[in-house]
Structures are given as structure tokens and as C-alpha cells.
Amino acid sequence: MNTQQQNYEQITAALQRDNILASAAEIQGLFCGMLGGGMPLESQDWVDAVADFVNQSEPLTKEIVELLTELYNETCQQLLESDFSFALCLPDDAAPINERGQALLEWVQGFMLGFGLHQDDLTNCSDDVKEALEDFADIARMDEQMAEGEEFEQALFEVVEYVRVSAMLCFNELGKSPEEQQSQPKTVH
Q1: Which of 3, 39, 71, 187 is most exposed, with the fewest beta carbons within 10 Å of its own?
Q2: How far apart are CA 171 and CA 1, in angstroms?
């Protein structure tokens, strides 16, 4: 089991204990969408966004903030790596296919929400990013159950891989590394 799968189980269980109706997949998707939409890596805006969207604007408990900070930092680190080691925080491959499929939908929905919070102007985006976002919107609306079987496993694997690569594409095109932040002049509004 990789660390993202362990994170998925641990974080999702902690969220459920706190009566937060979100999974680790949805929250990592939110992080990736915010980062892919241009939120600076060192920003802590995600804490309020998570509280607003998954905890009825109530502050998150210390345990949840610590678990999510770990997930956030790990996600940022993976997105910055040049070896494409970024992994979606999803259930273990041994989990039922519909559980994994549902987690992927939640991840994509979280991504779309996070992206929308930080990027509302797609005019300067590449066609690849625009296409990925259109595909994400289609994926987020999927709700049919999947049957067990090799062809469905392969299809799910391919969609997960497409989402993973597309999230990296958005981050690489629109995300801001700490170095980029410093090279951009600060503007006062």
C-alpha cells in the first residue's frame, strides 16, 4: 500500500469521526485544483476552503488540520517533483471497484471546486488545460455503477491515470512555485 492509500484510509476515517462528509480524495482534489488554479504553494487558504466546503464553515479540529497539512505538504512535494511521482489519494486497489470509482469522482469534483476558487479566466490557458477541464466536468457527472472485471479495472485505471496527468498539467501550466512567487512583482489593489 502506498502512502496515498494509507492517507486515504486514515484521513477518511478521521473525517468520518468528526462528522465531516468528505473523503480524503475530495480534499486532495480540492488542494490540487487550488494549486493547479494558481494558489501559491505556501498559502494556507486551503484551511478555510476545507472548513467552508466540507465542515459548514466550522473550524477544523487540530487532528484534522494536522492530517490535512501532512497531505497538503506531501501533495505539493509530489507536484514539484520532476519524476511524475504524484499519486492521487484514493482507496487501495483491493477496495471494491465502485468505491474506487466513487473516490475518483469525489477527487475530480474537489479539483473542479478548488480550481474555480483560484482560476476564473481560462483565456490564457492552453487547449490541453481547457480540454482537461472539460473532461473533468464530464467525469464529475458520471454516476453509473461499474461491474467487476478486467475491462472495468482497465477503464478505471486509464481514467485515474488521465486525471493524474491532467492535474499535473494544470499545475505545471498555472501553478506557482515559491520561486515564481518571488519573481513576480507584488501588486497592491
Answers
A1: 187
A2: 26
Please provide the DSSP assignment of 2-16 as one string: -HHHHHHHHHHHHHH
Q: Cβ contacts of residue 136 below 8 Å, gap of 6+?
A: 108, 111, 112, 163, 166
* Cell, residue 82: 520532476
89 contacts 11 by C-beta, under 8 angstroms: yes
Say how far apart CA 122 and CA 129 lie, in whole Å.
Answer: 9
Average pLDDT over residues 134-142: 92
Burial of residue 188 (number of CB atoms within 10 Å: 0-12, 13-18, 19+) = exposed
Segment 40-89, tens digit of pLDDT:
988 888 999 899 988 888 889 999 999 999 999 999 999 998 888 899 99
Whether 60 and 32 have beta carbons less than 8 Å apart is answered as no
